[in-house]
Design a protein that fits this description.
- With 222 residues, the chain is mostly helical.
Length: 222
């Protein structure tokens, strides 16, 4: 019952017009138009789909629901400055996800008790052609090292991303971490893309702003 649908499916005749309308609102939202109400419509669409089919939605949709809610309640930018709390909430979301995932593997999984957990998980329904080649070619010791590195990264992510001097290595390792997930686990490329998109919340402004942009927006120049 915990994962039972909360809302009914749309009538079949409504699917195309509602889908096209939602796509239009989504494009407007991505283009910075029709805010703030477009933000709430985009959030409502993802929340509806997640509640209608909770089992299929799983982690990706739930992260979208939280992320889009944060963006919907964030104040609209009216000047070169804006409150930092929406950015902080996105940062906490990413780090909480990593830490909870790592602790779950340690306390309720076999990641500390066996050395072949990752090697096993990339097989079965998750296996891609790249994973099949890797399982045949790479020694088990390398899979074990990757398993411990992944677990260590998730558990220590709050520290790695919070300490300014460690942030660049953390971003680089995290990017490699998600590239491996995307390549070796079927359809988890979408999850990896979602997580990497949240990395923008940790990218220093000096990595993004050019000197000309900084002058126009009143931001510190690179």
């Amino acid at each position: 019952l915990a994962n039972a649908p909360r809302f009914p499916l749309l009538p079949r005749a409504w699917a195309a017009p509602v889908g096209l309308t939602y796509l239009g609102v989504l494009l407007a939202w991505l283009g910075g138009r029709l805010r703030p109400w477009s933000s709430w419509i985009v959030w409502a669409g993802v929340a509806y789909v997640t509640a209608t089919d909770p089992i299929s939605a799983f982690t990706i949709n739930r992260v979208f629901v939280i992320t889009l809610f944060i963006l919907a309640i964030a104040p609209q930018r009216t000047s070169s400055t804006m409150p930092a709390w929406p950015l902080r909430m996105l940062q906490v979301l990413l780090l909480t996800h990593y830490a909870a995932s790592g602790l779950c593997k340690m306390l309720h999984g076999d990641w500390l008790n066996h050395t072949d957990v990752l090697w096993t998980q990339v097989q079965g329904i998750y296996m891609t052609n790249a994973a099949a080649w890797s399982v045949r070619t790479m020694p088990l010791e390398l899979w074990t090292a990757m398993q411990h590195a992944a677990l260590g990264f998730e558990v220590t992510a709050p520290l790695l991303f919070s300490v300014r001097r460690l942030r660049a290595p953390a971003l680089a390792f995290g990017l490699l971490f998600h590239i491996i997930i995307a390549v070796t686990m079927y359809k988890l490329i979408y999850f990896s893309a979602q997580m990497v998109a949240l990395y923008l919340a940790f990218v220093p402004a000096t990595w993004i702003w050019t000197r000309d942009d900084a002058k126009l927006e009143g931001q510190p120049s690179a």
